[in-house]
Amino acid sequence: MRHIAFDKIVQTVKSLCIEAAYELPDDIIDALKKAVVKETGKRAAKILNQLIENAHIAKTEHIPLCQDTGLAVVFIEQGTNVIVDAPSEDSGPTIIDAVNAGVKAGYQAGYLRKSVVTDPLFERTNTGSNTPAIVHFYSVPGEKIKITIMTKGGGCENKSRFRMFKPTSTHDEIVKWIVDVVVSAGADACPPFIVGVGIGGDFELCTLLSKKALLRPLGQQNPAESYAGLEQYLLKAINALNIGPQGLGGDTTALAVSVETAPCHIASLPVAVNIDCHSHRHKSAII
């Protein structure tokens, strides 16, 4: 059995929060550069180049990629042969407490905007720490812990949509609805987008699948040929919308579409869409 110190989790999460806010992942930069080459609109190509330059400035000068430094969404995969030691003899604190301590420390040290309110409806008072984080926990084989942080901005998250289709719904109906969700997002969600699609499961699993789809490296297709084909079809249809970078027209409305699926009830066909903006901020670490 392997033991990992509570503070090791805290410090890892702290670093991931700062790195995610400052550094756009390489696959996103590469996708933007490829989009510039293929873009036929001069204004759109210029905007894409500006996005690349902005990402370079953020990384080299250690400043946030966007003023909305997001809600921290954390995915934890903890090996079954790992124990996280409590910071003291008090056995109360858990790995979730360590994550929240790390988010608080990272947003403070990185001078990142805190965007979490205590109550969603009646008393929307800022917590001042960007906590609590949204944490998804998985138990997996092994003796390591993988932590992935996505800092999700409000503008694109607000354009998320879910629909429970009839099991008799056609491929074309589902495709049309997904494309319509992107149309409704428009410039408000800061294109070019990464579009995550969840199909199957139930109400809550479907929406989680759509968010997990955003974490797949760009260019990596669904392993099932049918869904890989659906990803390509959707990307082509979305990029034909002429929404373009920042909503000002062009061939590049989305950089990628990723579809994740799960088995579902015979009477259901749930579909969810989760959109992320061009500032697709996420980082992972394995301890």
Please specify the SSE layout and strand pairing.
Layout lengths: L1 E4 H17 L3 H13 L3 H20 L9 E9 L2 E4 L9 H15 L24 E7 L4 E8 L1 H4 L3 E5 L5 H15 L7 E9 L1 H11 L11 H15 L14 E11 L4 E8 L5 E5 L1
Parallel strand pairs: 1-3, 2-4, 7-8
Antiparallel strand pairs: 2-5, 5-10, 6-9, 7-9
Helix pairs in contact: 1-4, 2-3
- Measured as a percent range, the helix fraction is 25-40%
Report, as a whole number of angstroms, the end-to-end distance.
14 Å
Secondary-structure-based class equals alpha/beta
Order of helices and strands: EHHHEEHEEHEHEHHEEE
Strand residues, percent: 15-25%
Describe what you observe in this structure:
The protein has 287 residues and is an alpha/beta fold. The protein folds into two domains: 2-19 and 65-152, no CATH class; 155-285, no CATH class. Helices cover 38% and strands 24% of the residues. It is built from eight helices and ten strands. A four-stranded mixed sheet has the order 4-2-5-10. α1 (6-22) crosses α4 and α2 runs antiparallel to α3 (42-61). The longest helix has 20 residues, at 42-61. The chain is globular. The two termini are 14 Å apart.
Provide a brief overview of the structure.
The chain has 287 residues and is α/β, with parallel strands linked by helices. It is built from eight helices and ten strands. The protein has two domains: 2-19 and 65-152, no CATH class; 155-285, no CATH class.
